[in-house]
Amino acid sequence: MKIGIGCDHGGIVLKGAVIEAITELGHDYYDYGTFGEESVDYPDYAEKVCHAVLQGEVDKGILICGTGIGISIAANKFKGIRCAHVTDEFQAQMSAEHNDANIIALGGRVSDVVLAKKMVKKFLETNFAGGRHKNRVDKIFRIEEKNFH
Ligand code: RB5
Fold first, then answer.
1. Sign of torsion over alpha carbons 63, 69, 87, 130
2. Nearest residue by C-alpha to atom 8 in ligand 1
3. What average pLDDT score do residues 139-146 get?
4. What distance in Å separates the CA atoms of residue 63 and residue 136, rounded to the nearest whole number?
5. C-beta separation of 104 from 71 below 8 A
6. Beta-carbon neighbour count of residue 59 at 10 Å?
């Protein structure tokens, strides 16, 4: 798989761990920035990765800001994006298995590098379970159809 990565200045340190986890699993990645410590706005990086996922440039995305909150809120404003803000391995697994998340958001000031790598691995290794969970995700699609103009 090819994974799109985006972060603000609050996610720079954790981004290194995320890249390590992706490459250790044998996947490819594209880094949409930011690349330095200077203060930037997380919605800009959410937008780059969401477009990449929606246009099929990458298969899944990983976003990182200070808490994971702002960047996940921004990502979920894009029709077709299911971004899960996760803080432990179980949530990372469930986001893929039950919610068919196409992006996870991590907090660079929340998770340490060891935990971040475990969450990335769970997210990328877990398949969507389908079945009753597909019915629920289909309902999310229908909500989008009704509410996104
Ligand atoms: C930036 O200081 C910080 O607000 C941002 O990284 C993120 O935590 C927002 O949700």
1. negative
2. 66
3. 96
4. 24
5. no
6. 15
pLDDT digits (tens, 9 = 90+) for 107-131: 999 999 999 999 999 999 999 999 9
CA 104/CA 99 separation, integer angstroms: 11
CA of 64 to the centre of ligand 1 (A): 9
The Cα–Cα gap between 116 and 17 comes to 7
Report whether 50 contacts 103 (CB < 8 A): yes
Average pLDDT over the chain reads 97
Task: Please count the structural domains in the chain.
Answer: 1
CATH code (residue 25): 3.40.1400.10
Residue 65 is a catalytic residue = yes
Determine the pLDDT at residue 6: 98
Residues with CB under 6 Å of ligand 1 are 8, 10, 42, 65-67, 69-70
The residue range of the domain holding 55 is 2-147
Measured on CA atoms in the order 43, 45, 46, 48, is the torsion positive or negative? positive
